[in-house]
Amino acid sequence: MVEMSKLNTQSIIKKGNNTKAALIRSGVEMMTTYGYISSNIDSILKQVGVPKGSFYYYFKSKEDFGRQIIDNYDSFFAHKLDKHLTNEATDSSLDCIISFYQDAKKGMAKYNFDRGCLIGELIQEESLLPDGYSMILENILKSWQKKVEMCLRKAQEKGEIKENLNCTELANFFWIGWEGAVTRAKLIKKSEPLDIFIKLFLSGLTSSVA
Question: Could you give the 3-state DSSP secondary structure of residue 115?
């Protein structure tokens, strides 16, 4: 009886974790498409098949839901960046950046360019977001920026880009331009802004090599 009770408890916990994960996935889909303000909780619940009362079992509020969505997205995207930018099987560090660009481009095309970057979407709504969101978004961008900076430093060590280039500023510039390119690609429903940005960003680096 004790063993059966333990199994039932584990089953309930697993089901609860699966439901919460499904709500977060649906929230990511909704917010990368429509942003935070326009994302409707009722639509997310309907998609997942969860009653409204159950939503507040997993999340205190839409603000709490949004924070957990941001955290989930950051974990996913940081892993994607690490996968490409720290790939030891790739000889060229600049090729690592190209690999990330190609993967991101493929991901946007998969959803017909209807979904953008969650962080970029939320930044556009900054003045309407709950208190504390701006700091969270800025810290995430800084962490992503650091990953690109480290990749560029490796490119310097390999002689792919000039030694006197400021990798911190270049990484900052990368994310300023990349987020703009993603937003424009979503607007026009094609990859041209991504293609133009990465082409000019990389040509600016390689043209500086003596």
Answer: coil
